[in-house]
Amino acid sequence: MPVILWTDALIYLLVSAGIGFVIYVRRHEHLRAPWRQMMRSRLGMSAAVVLSAYVLIGLLDSMHFHPRLERSEGGVGYSAEILSVFDVIMTPMRTKVEKTYSAPFATHLYAKESIELPGGQQIRDYRRLVYGGSHLEDVADRPRDIALTSLRAVAEGIAVSLLLSAALLSLLARRAGVSFRAKLTSVLRGHEPVPWAVILGTASVLVVLGFLVARLGAGYHIFGTDKVGQDVLFQGLKSIRTGLVIGTLTTLVMLPFAIFLGIPAGYFRGWVDDTIQYIYTTLNSIPGVLLIAAAILMLQVYMTTHAERFENVAARADMRLLFLCIILGITSWTGLCRLLRGETLKLREVEYIQAAHAFGVGSFSIILRHILPNVMHIVLITVVLDFSGLVLAEAVLSYVNIGVDPSTVSWGNMINSARLEMAREPIVWWSLAAAFVFMFTLVLSANLFSDAVRDAFDPRIRKD
Amino acid sequence: MAEPLLRIEDLRTWLDVPAGAVRAVDGIDLQLERGQTFALLGESGCGKSMTALSVMRLLPAAGRIVSGSVRLDGQDLLGLVEMAMRRVRGGRLAMIFQEPQSCLNPVLSVGDQISESLRSHQGLKGSRARARCLELLDAVGIPDPVRRLGEYPHQLSGGMKQRVMIAIALAGEPDLLIADEPTTALDVTIQAQVLELLRDLQRKTGMAILLITHDLGVVAEMADRVAVMYAGHVVEQATCRQFFQAPKHPYAEKLFASLPSVNKREHHLEIIHGSVPSLVQVFQGCRFQPRCDRAWESCKTREPRWSDAGNGHSVRCHLYGPLAASGPLPTVDRKVKPPPGASRLSQPGTPLMRIRDLKVHFPIRKGVLKRLVGSVRAVDGLSLDIHSGHTLALVGESGCGKTTAGKGLLQLIRPSGGSVRFESDELTALRGQALRRRRRDMQIIFQDPYASMNPRMMIGEIIEEGMLAQGIGGGREQRQSEVDELLNRVGLSPDAKERYPHEFSGGQRQRICIARALAVRPRLVVCDEPTSALDVSVQAQILNLLRELQSRMGLAYLFITHNLSVVEYLAHDVAVMYLGRLVEQGTVEEVLNRPKHPYTQALLSAVPVVEPKSRREVIRLEGDLPSPASPPKGCHFHPRCPEAKPICGEQYPEEVGFSDSHRVRCWLYGS
Lengths: 464, 671
Description:
The structure holds 2 protein chains of 2 kinds. By secondary structure, chain A is mainly alpha-helical. Chain A is 68% helix and 6% strand.
């Protein structure tokens, strides 16, 4: 039985808005031109491929449902638990829960404990893991097993990506009306406007990584397990949705504020401008963390007093995530608002706006038809640049315990729980490392992508 | 023969763009003698600035010199290493640019900027450098140089900044000064001052000047020799006298013919069809051939070589070459079209628009509480009558308030006082919906055709906008056909509708702006310098179009301009503005032929003229336009007036009438 959480609904809305935007851009030549330019950037396209892999995981993780339960007395019931499609795909990793900490690729637990031998004798030793490396007869075989499995996964990954690339290239060749061979050479030599070689290369690396995770993950915990024995790699992948939700939904909250306050402030000037400026200067002068902490604490109180309104833990956690997005959005619109006000101040003196005045066009249509389309590039650039900042902000807020619900898997929570273990000897480093790797990849590719977008929209750098 | 100072041979400079190489300079040869002023004349995009930048080796990143040589006094500049070139640049070779604002560093004082050049090229420091700075500022005619030395660029006016630029250029004691459109950004009276200064300095120092300009008038005033550039090529070279007596190349002839002037009032201006060709292509025949009326077969297939027309006057055209006999010399008479009907009108009774004592003041506020500390009187008591079917020209220097006046009477800027009556309606009292409905009768065409269209709308939408806002043109189909009709009327094809503004050239864009204004069927159009951003040949097209539309539709124009030759050609009445007030008004003949006010006289005398025979004495105006925030007491013009009397400094003069139409405000004629 499908379940639509609040954030799911908003994500679907965002995705459909994105698709609508793409269709709109495709119909308008002047809007297509910068994107076409963007498609030519090698780094940008490579980052886009990585980003789309993240988005894919995030979307799969946003399709929730109650799993069906076969009742013993016949008939069908639904479990109270909420799972996502991504959870189902990752079932082996999700369900292989150890007792407590284990290191990456370990076969034994990380700490010694008392083990009762069949003879009734007790010794203190590292206990063998329930799942990690359980298929090994002899623990000494582990390096060989890992190497062989990885080799096999890499070979499979390369084969699959070659097949996919060939399929794509033949499609491209058919479209361009040239032979497959000609297309291949032109792609390899970089004669194409779009850097297909880079795109396919990045995609192939991702496919190979996917195979590695699937093959090795079946037998081992690649990034180890955490305190309660959950697979850390699985947690890292689950956190992607949280990161994306915070990065994108927050902008959805922020945009109306920035646009509907920034543009009128610049356009009408006078007391409108003064009022709006006072609002955002005041807001800006209150430390953001303070506001967020206050709001989240208020929400917490509300949730504990009205516990009956939330069906289950997932709905509760989701509400908190949504609320975090809203409060982050409310504290972060001022920068964009200020930029839009400045740009509008400049635009309102431009002659085409004056010409529209001379025609007697009303203020509302001037804002809608003349000003808004001409500031959209600023909005776009800011949104893309802000995304990575917001993902990082989530981590920081969770660290100080005012971020997402503790039951929500997020990079911030992973770091927060890993913090205590940094002091112990021997040190538990893998939770932190996993969160770092995933976050680093996302933020780096988002930054590279936004750089490419900014360059493409900057008329001073535009080449044609 | 001695080596010339500058010898350019077969210079080719290409710019790399995605579409290929733009051959911005495509094989030019020039020679410049010592002490000579050599003018490089051409329209925008013909490669004249690229030539100068190639000589200086200051090309943009995408540019490269493909072949050729540039020799300064026998020394090959293109072969020099950058270190050595840096000593030549600013030393023996100096350059001044069009925009003095952007060439001066706003955070360094004038003295620092001149000393910088002195230090690197003359090795002068400390008090000696300071003394030399003072000398230089004095030489370029800056009053009170001791004070100016410590001032910053924003404290100087445009003309002053250009003088400072010249002083910096002179600091290296150059043999050759390259002046790239040095006066284009300046007003005529300031232009006259700067040109005079350049001539003066040349006489004293004996330096040569390479003058790059599009203005035939400036060439006629300044140059000894002229080279005409077209599409990366030099097409004609001659001494100034020969060139202005009889230009040979059809392109040069056309340029002269397309200049508006009073003699051509009764006719259409000559125009050059088409536009400048793209320089990405490799040319087969003559570059001008597609736009030339006199081209024949050979012009398409063979590139013309230089042919001598006597006395060092050489032309690159088959008309004067060995092929001239082979080609059927075209006999197309320049048909002088009959004058458009309504160029002479009897004075009609009631004016369409009546402006009385219009005032536009901008408050100056200061401090935390934004107290009013004064006001900029941009327009300060303007009275005009605009009649149907007539063109009233509003003339004045930049900053005199003429654009503000135009916007004020259209209520784009709300006036602070006075009355603007359009037929029976008092516009200053109209508000909201009533004013918006009235707007269909009055339209405006702006100076910059690039900024006056929303880059993100298609031409069809742009033209339709006014109709939609005013609710005219009926249904969608009907509006579309009206848009087609409008595009036809301004000489564009209807399929322009589906395209975006950036796909059009400056002249075409201005046509679209005119079509957009006409879409609401206005009766008065304010033209705010509609041609000053355009080349001469394109300007002629627009002026013809405006006149034709006037005679067909009986439009009234308020033509705001600083270009007096356009006024002579187009206007019926003229009003001259100075610092927010009118100083003289009357019919075109009265004001331009018998100017009474000393300011009008000076303005007229400062315009560079093309005809060499009609050289006149330039009345030099001292100083610059005062600030409209604190206009001088008495007659605003008296501090600069050559004929000022004591009373001028005390009281603003009353209006004196010379005829029904001709009125002047000056104490010379008062009682």
